[in-house]
Amino acid sequence: MRAVLEIPRLEGVDNFRDYGGYAVADGRRVRRGVLLRSANHHGATDADLEALAGLDLALVVDLRRRVERERAPSRRPEGFAAAVISSDEDRPDSWLEHVQTSDLSPGSFHDFLVGYYRDAVFEPCHHDLFARYFASLEEIKGPVLIHCAAGKDRTGILAALTHRLLGVAEDDLMQDYLATNQAARIEMRTPLMAAYIRDLTGRTPTDAALRVCLGVHADYLEAAFAAIEARMSLEAYFAEVLGVGPQRCEAIAARLLNA
């Protein structure tokens, strides 16, 4: 039996964690050490790179837009050999537009993110990235790491879709999603985000607004799933939009679930 991968603590890669380990309805459990998620790897330290090399990743899914990747290119360990899924399609940066045009209040960030999640599940670029990820889960051997810029929104949606596909309970799915709201993480990133927004706009949001900006809320993920279910069943979304029909779903479950 393959030993469970020990997940290291990283210094320069935010929100790095395993999103496996949860029970599903039939009594099986999502394997640990196979499904990993994080923020971007631009700030990875040399020690982080050594730790990442030790994970022997098989696949990295970079959900960022091309301009984001060019602005903050990922650092890779020496000898990095994992497959990489990314997209060269560029699209408008709705978050940047919001920051530049809104009143930067807590409510404005909350409402923006509800709308963002509602739209994100039907963004063609995300369909392509998500579909390639799920297709890879059927065949690829070894750990998979998904990330975006902050590792909370695009990454959170894809992790939650994975949990829904595998049959993880709603409470556990939401618990995993909300783990992004670790107080120490938000406290550490608050001054950095304040400075970034101040440089962009000449204005500084309140701490309350910054906490909304940096965190996640159940409303966001619920909006994403409600948007799907307003158009079609979740099963149809997986099969018709993401290419995960019953046969592929069974193959993914066989790989990612254990007794």
Overall pLDDT, averaged?
95
Structurally, the number of domains stands at 1
> Total number of β-strand segments?
7
- Alpha-carbon Rg, integer: 18 Å
Strand order of the largest sheet: 1-3-6-4-5
Characterise the protein shown here.
The protein has 259 residues and is an alpha/beta fold. The chain has one domain (17-258): Protein tyrosine phosphatase superfamily (Protein-Tyrosine Phosphatase, Chain A). The protein contains twelve helices and seven strands. It starts with 16 loop residues before the first strand and ends with a strand. The model has no long low-confidence stretch (mean pLDDT 95). The strands form two sheets. It has a five-stranded mixed sheet with strand order 1-3-6-4-5, with helices on one face. Helix 2 (66-71) links the parallel strand 4 and strand 5 (83-85). The protein is globular.
Question: Secondary structure elements and their pairing?
Answer:
Blueprint: E1 17-18, E2 29-30, E3 35-38, H1 46-55, E4 59-62, H2 66-71, E5 83-85, H3 94-101, H4 106-120, H5 124-139, E6 144-147, H6 154-166, H7 170-178, H8 183-201, H9 207-214, H10 218-231, H11 234-241, H12 246-256, E7 257-258
Parallel strand pairs: 3-6, 4-5, 4-6
Antiparallel strand pairs: 1-3, 2-7
Helix pairs in contact: 4-9, 4-10, 5-12, 6-7, 8-9
Summarize the structure.
With about 260 residues, the chain is α/β, with parallel strands linked by helices. Helices cover about 55% and strands about 10% of the residues.
